[in-house]
Amino acid sequence: MDASHTHRHPVFCTVVPPHLLDKAALSADSRRADLAQRTLERDSMLRTRRRVTAVRGIVPTLAAPPAEGPDRTVYDAQHRTRLPGTRVRGEGDPAGGDATVNRAYAGLGATYDLFLKGFGRRSIDDSGLPLDATVHYGEDYNNAFWDGQQMVFGDGDGDLFLDFTVSVDVIGHELTHGVTQYTANLRYRGQSGALNESMSDVFGSLIKQYSLEQTADQADWLIGAGLLGPNVTGVALRSMKAPGTAYDDDELGKDPQPATMDDYVDTHSDNGGVHINSGIPNHAFYIAATELGGKAWERAGQIWYDTLTGGDLTPKADFADFARLSTAAAVARYGEGGAEHQALQKAWSAVGVPLAG
Q: Does the model's pTM come out above 0.90?
């Protein structure tokens, strides 16, 4: 592994934000409240462990030369919390009878494919890093996460949340935290943290669109569609097309994401609202991608990838930094005054993020 990676500070990133679980923990339904509280407590413990690991400088290592193509391994935690669990499927093994294992394996492959075929990136570290995932984590665990080394999926409680492997964009979202970890290493707080979350939503959505061979106008632009349980009033965890509209539920509350800087949320919760204010750069990407049309990963996605990996995006970058650098990346790749440059200007203007200053 490149020595520069030893200075990376991987963070513990969950797809379901704490503000949503906080709401569920206040439910009058004791089972719902208990399961949400249990998930929050588990997440808090894992977040602390991840921070200690980062301080100690422990990083994933490659035990062998990188493989040609993905190197996937899926483990089964068997409803316990010891990682990684029992190995149940390796690269090239046939599908088995466990649909959760098969979905995790396919989602790892879909993520690898988009980054390789769309951007020429070999796995999340660009050096063929093996892609590991553990399924059936804990009892009714209502989340999925990237812990700095691997993916972990809960089964959900079947009430508020379903199996966390059902949405390929959720798998792509979490693995993209790894890509960010190995590139811009965006600090997980405030606007840089919201950018970190937004990068994962952007590429998670692109992985789904790539898998379904969808154009920008055909995509639903939802993160976690199909993940909410049968008793939840909502369609997904987040909407890039219309932030703030993904759910409006008696138990989970209303989607708090803003679409523009006019509604930016100042909060000390969730590391300064990283899951909330990510709606602003998410919406900017949606506007740019739909303005350009066609396959969103080909131009808008390329610009976002160039910005994330170009070396000028610092760990403490804010929205204005990303807007400026992404617009410059559009000019560098496609020329000044073209459709791509204009789409970026329109997108950042629409969400109220300045390009100068």
A: yes
